[in-house]
UniProtKB/TrEMBL annotation:
PROSITE patterns: FLAVODOXIN_LIKE. Residues 4-182 form the Flavodoxin-like domain. It holds the Pfam family Flavodoxin_5. This is Flavodoxin-like domain-containing protein. InterPro entries: Flavodoxin/NO_synth (IPR008254), Flavodoxin_dom (IPR026816), Flavoprotein-like_sf (IPR029039), Protoporphyrinogen_IX_DH (IPR052200). It comes from Bdellovibrio reynosensis. It comes from the Bacteria.
Length: 182
């Protein structure tokens, strides 16, 4: 059984929800999991004590939260020698347009180049629109963003687009890496 670390950033809760889902699956399979929001990860947590690391982050204005980027960059040496995986959470991935898909992949590749961490496993999950947590201004922006993706939304609902089967598959792929030759 492996000891695993999950670190995530999340402003409106969807990346946290996905991280908790992955953690629950791993625990159910008998693994030991420590899970932290990057904003409150204790200094005493040492990546070298884990056999694998999973990092998740949401896309905000075509990039990932600065705090998470900083944490990954400062741990890139140790992350490079561990089985590790990354998931991005965004809405652009819902667009059918190939150039929008390319843009989302480009955001991830730019993050890898900037942090000097290049995990073997990475993926992009569709996130959520949580009107209940947005202010007036953000509601209008997100409504327009959803429309661009071909989705008609209403302000009095929250919308979750995450494909949980895809999250499950990602977890399986990571475990496969962990059990494979290093
Ligand atoms: C202010 C704001 C900016 C966003 N910018 C982008 C973006 O540039 N590209 C994108 O695909 N999704 C964007 N999104 C959608 C978020 O990535 C999506 O809602 C995600 O589920 C948020 O994750 P979280 O709940 O963990 O914070 C944006 C959302 C907000 C509220």
């Amino acid at each position: 059984m492996a000891r695993l670390l999950i670190v995530y950033a999340s402003k409106h809760g969807q990346t946290e929800k996905i991280s908790n889902f992955i953690s629950a699956e791993l625990v159910q399979m008998g693994h030991f999991v420590d899970i932290f929001d990057v904003e409150s990860i204790p200094e005493t947590v040492s990546v070298k004590n884990y056999e694998g690391v999973i990092i998740g982050a949401p896309v905000y204005v075509s990039g990932f939260p600065a705090h998470l980027k900083k944490w990954v960059k400062s741990h890139s040496d140790i992350l490079a020698i561990k089985p590790s995986g990354f998931f991005s959470v965004c809405l652009g991935v819902l667009e059918n347009d190939e150039s929008a898909q390319r843009d989302e992949r480009h955001i991830v590749q730019k993050f890898f180049n900037e942090t000097n961490w290049h995990p073997k496993q990475w993926t992009i999950f569709a996130g959520s629109i949580t009107y209940s947590k947005y202010n007036w201004f953000l509601k209008r922006i997100m409504h327009a963003l959803a429309k661009k993706s071909g989705t008609d939304t209403e302000y009095d609902h929250d919308y979750e687009y995450t494909d949980w089967n895809k999250v499950h598959q990602f977890t399986e792929n990571l475990l496969h890496d962990l059990s494979g030759p290093r």
